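Narrative of accomplishments. A recurring question from our advisory board has been how the design workflow behaves on a single, concrete structure rather than in aggregate. To address it, we present the structure tokens for one chain from the evaluation set, followed by the sequence designed for it. No filtering or post-editing was applied between the two.
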């Protein structure tokens, strides 16, 4: 069905159809999974090449291209808060879910996508999470098991790795300080709650190595540069199963998030970009990606298609962030809260780092 949809779109686009599009993503092991699970199959199905670029998130580069009307990027992997903000700013094209192909079982797209991933300009493609992890070889005896342990420098001495942004760090700090999961964002919504989060971060600040790219945390663990680090769960998984690294994920308090795919507003390659978006967010593509890195599909019909890892052969279910066992004590990311508070907290976090 999907190939037929793409073929019709391609036939209707005429001889001037672009022969390539640029898809922007997070690189590393995730980028390889997307390339093998979506990009290469898309080119085989349509003849349209996919040029790949990596970035570290945010809207700055998209905004710059749209502002001067020189669009080089076409399709971009986005954090959901950026997808909503980008939509509000007119930086992304609006997407009609009804225009996308049905699920693997024939379910209409509007019913096949889980509710968490629906926004006006983004199509949810996966659940991912920020967790913390450690190298078992470098922690003798008792092992960390809770979010509080990440902040406990007495029982677990050594440096910590954290992403150089306020998001996740503030949530983790409050969880470690004893705030129940269902009260984290309400607490962050008060001046006292934010002060409490920053105060908790202050207790480990001089032991933190700040990272920016997703490939850094596994490398820091492998090198012994840090004792523990926050990380994207899929990056740690790939180091575990493909590199035999003795890494352990602590799922307690994980921040369960949603990845989206959006199209840059004003791209002259809109038809090809829409074809790519339809293909890459199909249940089959999500499953091919989910069999290469442990991110859960956001289509209901895609979940049963994720069985074992294509190389290592391990069952994927125990490694998926949205599996019942791993999500039991997860905090679901409140993207709407961050859309409202991103700018002010980014400024405060930068000022705090500089002190």
């Amino acid at each position: 069905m999907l190939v037929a949809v793409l073929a019709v779109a391609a036939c209707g686009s005429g001889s001037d159809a672009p022969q390539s599009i640029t898809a922007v993503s997070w690189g590393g092991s995730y980028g390889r999974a997307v390339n093998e699970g979506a990009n290469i199959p898309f080119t085989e199905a349509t003849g349209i090449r996919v040029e790949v670029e990596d970035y570290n998130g945010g809207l700055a580069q998209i905004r710059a291209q749209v502002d001067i009307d020189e669009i080089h990027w076409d399709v971009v992997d986005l954090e959901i808060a950026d997808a909503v903000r980008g939509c509000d700013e007119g930086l992304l094209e609006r997407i009609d879910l009804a225009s996308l192909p049905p699920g693997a079982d024939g379910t209409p797209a509007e019913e096949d996508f889980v509710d968490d991933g629906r926004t006006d300009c983004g199509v949810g493609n996966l659940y991912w999470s920020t967790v913390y992890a450690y190298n078992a070889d470098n922690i003798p005896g008792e092992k960390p098991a809770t979010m509080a342990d990440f902040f406990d420098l007495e029982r677990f001495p050594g440096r910590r790795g954290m992403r150089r942004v306020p998001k996740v760090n503030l949530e983790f700090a409050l969880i470690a300080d004893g705030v129940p999961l269902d009260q984290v964002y309400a607490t962050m919504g008060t001046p006292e709650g934010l002060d409490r989060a920053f105060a908790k971060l202050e207790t480990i600040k001089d032991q933190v190595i700040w990272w920016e790219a997703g490939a850094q945390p596994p490398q820091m663990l492998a090198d012994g540069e840090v004792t523990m680090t926050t990380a994207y769960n899929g990056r740690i998984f790939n180091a575990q199963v493909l590199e035999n690294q003795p890494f352990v994920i602590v799922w307690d308090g994980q921040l369960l998030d949603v990845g989206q795919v959006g199209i840059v507003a004003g791209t002259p390659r809109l038809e090809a970009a829409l074809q790519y978006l339809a293909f890459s967010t199909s249940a089959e593509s999500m499953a091919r990606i989910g069999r290469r890195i442990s991110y859960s599909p956001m289509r209901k019909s895609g979940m049963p298609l994720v069985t074992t890892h294509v190389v290592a052969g391990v069952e994927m279910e125990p490694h998926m962030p949205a599996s019942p066992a791993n999500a039991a004590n997860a905090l679901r990311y409140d993207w709407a809260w961050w859309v409202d508070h991103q700018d002010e907290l980014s400024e405060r976090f930068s000022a705090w780092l500089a002190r």
